Amino acid sequence: MYTQYYGFSAKPFQLSPDPRFFFGSSGHKRALAYLRYGLSQGEGFIVVTGGIGTGKTTLVRSLFAELDPTRVVAAQLVTTQLEADDLLRMVVASFGLAHESVSKASLLKYFEDYLRSCARDGRRVLLIVDEAQNLPPRSLEELRMLSNFQVGEKPLLQSFLLGQEEFRSTLASPGLEQLRQRVIASCHLSPLTAEETRRYIEHRLQVVGWKGNPAFTDGAFAAIHDFTRGVPRRINVFCDRVLLHGFLEEAAEFNEDVVLATRREFGQEVGAPSVAAAAPTMSLAPRTAAVPAAAAVAVPSEPIIDERLERIERAVNGLLLAQSSGGSQEEIGRRLSELEPTVAALKEGFVRLTEVLEHLNGAQRSTH
To answer: Which GO terms of the molecular function aspect are on file (predicted)?
Structure first.
């Protein structure tokens, strides 16, 4: 739709992580430098923290794009509240090893043999643990124990721990002193500043061939930052809608009024309360007053939508890692099956959203 209308080669604000779109804000550049240093050491843990949608996965994928896939085998583990034994089983499964109806001793033996085999072939093994803030201390200790595998003085496994902001507090707990001593590099990603938000939008547009059409005014950039709070994923979702709005209105320039119009449309879909909180100057009272209470509370909230988008991003990222590191068909099939619950949840959400929009339209007609 709008990609052809504006002459883009692809969607500039896609949600799936793509190293081409990596934007080096001051924070992200610093983080990438720390990660490169940590990766060059070939051992220990590298920790990346940040709020939902701040670009943790994109940062790691940008780093991995620099690696030789014939010399590195990587697997991603998306964690929930996994206890130590379950975590070990999931780690082994992530590398395509036998794990069903197997004792813990056998799991450890299989994994150690696998690590040694990769070392003999000259391949490094990386484990990416996403949503690390969900892991209890005993499970984190299990990850530390896995880092003990080595040949001579050479460690056989290096781990990336990606987590939300609360993971920093978890790491600071007294019982994880040994794990902290093995963290060789860490970084925390913060939202973009107003100026960085502008450059981030321009960068992604330029990647797909933007030549100034459509044009963005200073007021438009400021309004986008105000609404998204500088969170990259929110910027992507919202700017995609701004471009769609511009296509439907045949707009060649986006000013503050266009952004505010998109905010109003967006607010009707993701729930008026969260939009009102993000934009205190915009009143939604006339529209929401006539909406039935059941409809008003049925809309997925902004945090829930963020979580669903993050689940999709993690699942797709795991699938891409499995493919790029030569994963088996069984492993790739398992990765695809992990997407099914999220897709089902999204389908259910769209059904609910349609019902709510019908209520909103009916309520709006009744006021005229």
So the answer is: ATP hydrolysis activity
